Amino acid sequence: MSEATELVLTIEKAERLKALPPYLFVELDHAKRKLQEEGHDVIDLGVGDPDLPTPSQIIQKLQATVQDPANHRYSVSEGLLALRQAIADWYQRRFSVSLNPVTEVLPLLGSKEGIGHLPLALVNPGEVVLVPDPCYPPYRSGAVLAGAEVSLMPLEPENQFLPDFGAISQRAARRAKLMFLNYPNNPTAAVSTENCFKEAIELAKEYQIVVAHDAAYSEIAFEGVRPISFLQLPDAKEVGVEFHSLSKTYNMTGWRVGWVCGNAKVIAALAQLKTNLDSGIFQPVQWAAIEALQADQTSLQPLMATYQQRRDLVVDGLAQAGWQIPKPQATFYIWAPVPGGQSSMEFAKRVLEQTHVVITPGMGFGAHGEGFVRLSLTVPTEQLKEAVDRLTKAL
Ligand SMILES: Cc1ncc(COP(=O)(O)O)c(C=O)c1O
Fold first, then answer.
1. How many A from CA of 248 to the centre of ligand 1?
2. Does the Cβ of 111 fall within 6 Å of ligand 1?
3. At 338, is the pLDDT very low, low, confident or very high (cuts 50, 70, 90)?
């Protein structure tokens, strides 16, 4: 073909990608990268990615099982029965909830994968997905990718960051197919109540809405607080499922393993979708996950003590500098009201410029996150001390 007639392909993204909420942190990311390139010591309190290592017996299990060629082949998409059984046993011990490992448990390539795919398995274009605001972004993007209409449930400090189910419009409720909830909550660190879950179940029954509760942070809690499972409530399994992750509890974010459990029909729909998209979790990772779940869970106490100490260091340290922030009872996030009437983005930019500390503007989690910033406790304690010193000077 001559140069003159050569065709140039115009590559256009699909409409569904264009419909995703815009990525709001371009400028902030750019400023962070520039500072790093200039050789500045940037402390990143932006991401919730544990700095501490995966416990050694989990690593050893991976090392041992990776030697076996039987573990090198495709795994089954629905996960090893041994893992599904270990998950069911863990649920029984931790929450006194009985699960059928075959029909009510489905391992995932990290819970984000299942969260993102669930609307594709359940929701038709134009149907409504109820999503908390602020929230972990994949609830919203998964719904948008499925062509759903997102209806937001504001989480307000006056209501302890629990949804006001009474404020959901009749129109949205009638058209809703799925509702996401998440406690302990990212980004607000709020813990749920039985009553909140009860109200969600009542609404779900009245309007035929599937509830998907994300309990990724259920094990990260302080001072005797033991977050409950949605599935502990009567009839919860009739209306919904619960997502879980090994990422946060066992410092395994890079391993990509989590699960969803609960309502068998919902699990079957997601499993059917997944057989068309993935071929299961690398088996040594599944054996390592079994090791994690079967180990003596009191070994997690030092990790919780570390997060609690870091939380106190930040909240008490910043209080001395005049920044009053409520102490979270769970998660490794601090949800802090922006001081001095600036927007969360302006404040985060100013903090980055003046202190080289990265914090996340609350508006990145939804419009109702405005007025707050999120600080993550997943950096070494020494760095966190340094961050508090720098913030204190800047405040
Ligand atoms: C609320 C919440 N759910 C789920 C996840 C995803 O975890 P995973 O590593 O299992 O995909 C995260 C990660 O930050 C999260 O904050």
1. 8
2. yes
3. very high
Residue showing tokens 């709001």: 24
Which ligand 1 atom is the nearest neighbour of the CA of 252?
Answer: 9
CA 11 to ligand 1 center in whole angstroms = 32
pLDDT at 15 over 70: yes
Tell me what percent of the chain is helix, strand and coil, each rounded to the nearest 5: 50, 15, 35
What is the torsional sign of CA 141, 377, 222, 395?
A: negative
Model pLDDT for residues 196-250, shown as the tens digit of each residue:
999 999 999 999 999 999 999 999 999 999 999 999 999 999 999 999 999 999 9
Q: Is 33 exposed, middle or buried (0-12, 13-18, 19+ CB in 10 A)?
A: exposed
- Between the CA of 133 and the centroid of ligand 1 the distance, in Å, is 16
- DSSP for residue 378: -
- Which amino acid, residue 49? D
d(CA 244, CA 198): 20
Q: Which atom of ligand 1 is nearest to the CA of 182?
A: 1
User: Which residue is closest in CA terms to ligand 1's atom 14?
Assistant: 48
Determine the Cα–Cα distance for residues 305 and 16; give it in Å rounded to an integer: 43
Mapped onto helix, strand or coil, the DSSP state of residue 280 is: coil
Q: Which atom of ligand 1 is nearest to the CA of 214?
A: 3
Q: Is the CB of 247 under 6 A from ligand 1?
A: yes
- How many degrees, rounded to 5, is the angle at CA 48 between CA 134 and CA 274? 80
Q: What is the pTM of this model?
A: 0.96
